[in-house]
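Continuing the series of single-chain predictions for the mutant panel. This is the parent chain; the variants come on the following pages.
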Amino acid sequence: MKNSLFILLPLFITVSIATSFAQEPGRPRYYYAVPLANPPKVFEVDVCVYGATPGGVSAAVQASRMGKRALLIEFGRHVGGMTASGLSDTDGGEPGITGGISAEFYKRLGQRRGFRPSVAETTFRLLLEENRVPVLFEHRLKSVEKSAGRITEVAFENGNRVRAKMYIDATYEGDLLALAGISFTVGREGNARYGESVNGVIFGPKDNFDLPVDPYVIPGDPQSGLLPGISADPVGPVGFGDHRVQAYNFRMWLMRSNHGARPWPKPAHYDPHRYALLLRYLAAGNRHLELHEGDNNNHHLFNGAFSTDLVGGNYLWPTADYATRGKIYQDHVTYQQGLMFFLANDEHVPEEIRAQVRSFGPANNEFLDTGGWPHQLYVREGRRMVSDYVMTERNGTGEIVAEDPVALASYQMDSHNTTRIVLNGKVSNEGQVYEQLKYPVPLSYRAIIPRKPECENLLVVFAVSASHIGLSTLRMEPVLMITGQSAATAACLAIDEGVSVQNLSYPKLRARLIADGQILEAPVDFRSPAIK
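Parent structure:
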């Protein structure tokens, strides 16, 4: 089986992708029909990694380097997750605390910020090819079989199955852990749950309306209804938990129009009324726009108040089935493409704004299969495992320090807005948090493994055991790569020792991580731009 997997590597990378491209080129999509495997195959490996995010790639590469038969499986048709889909203004990857495969990746790129998405994906692919890691693209999870507390087989919608000794969930959503019956949560805990202060309902000063804006269709008349994008659902008291999830968007990769940018696409279901609130904000006086070549995030539009973040449009995503996610994905495409088309062309938008937006457009040399639009939706948060150790705000403040670190995080604890409501008769966003760290945060090994009764051969690299705000510093892409390598190291050592991931000796794991270049303790005088 090992030899056959390696022989099939080029086939999986070229045939699977080419088949999909032929269906409908130029359109970003999440879920689409994939032919059944003919005939269905059963793959037997040592380590099965599901999710070709940066953490999934580093996990598969590390497992292979440790002499194990590794198989990387991806829902879609690309590798590299957000790092290969526009997020190159990389947070949380400072050299002083970033080691191992993560540091190797950025060294190959030659830069930690400003790299092209296509170059990032090419670099990930080269890492996989050089380490002879086979990749199965367009494989959607269908079911998980377990016996005696261990995953024995994972089945996919196309009929293929994988049997492995160890499994790693590297998805942004925690899809594998959910099918495996692992405890998880979604949304925000109340501050009282873990003794936190910025987890639940919160009205942050940033990414909010800095000028008063009337929320009603007819100004001053609540009976006329709310403008689109404003929720009538009340939020709880400050500090209370709820089901809400911080907003998603696409990290647009832009080029100047005079350098050959594509024109802003007009989505099929474009509705200019969707941006009526933005017109109100413009009329109130906010004209702040900071588009530039390369990576553009939510705050580049109007200080993040009304931006590319589709606030409130993603609550169902973490636990939704694939078809429902497909609809949510397309709504995000329609909203964000429509927003940019509106700003560039609508006659109600001030001409100076229109001219500025028209001076940019999607790059003509990126995301060629999706018309210049990023293929990966920025899922900032999905499910979060609930295990024996939960990373919280108290880890971020340094009040609690994990004694069994497998990664270090250095970016601030942050959350994008979760909803937009009426507050004191004016529009207000809710959910934004930016809390600086005092020192890098060690991620506990116990936070990447389930409780032992739930599963003994699964590790998690993004949807780790953390509160909403506790996850916020751990979710950065460099940290995801570091965690992926550590998870794979633990998986391989557990195979060698014949033990569960819970019974693996941490001192033995720590020694191997350090030997492989991982950094588990920050220098005493370490400071980064994100730490003040």
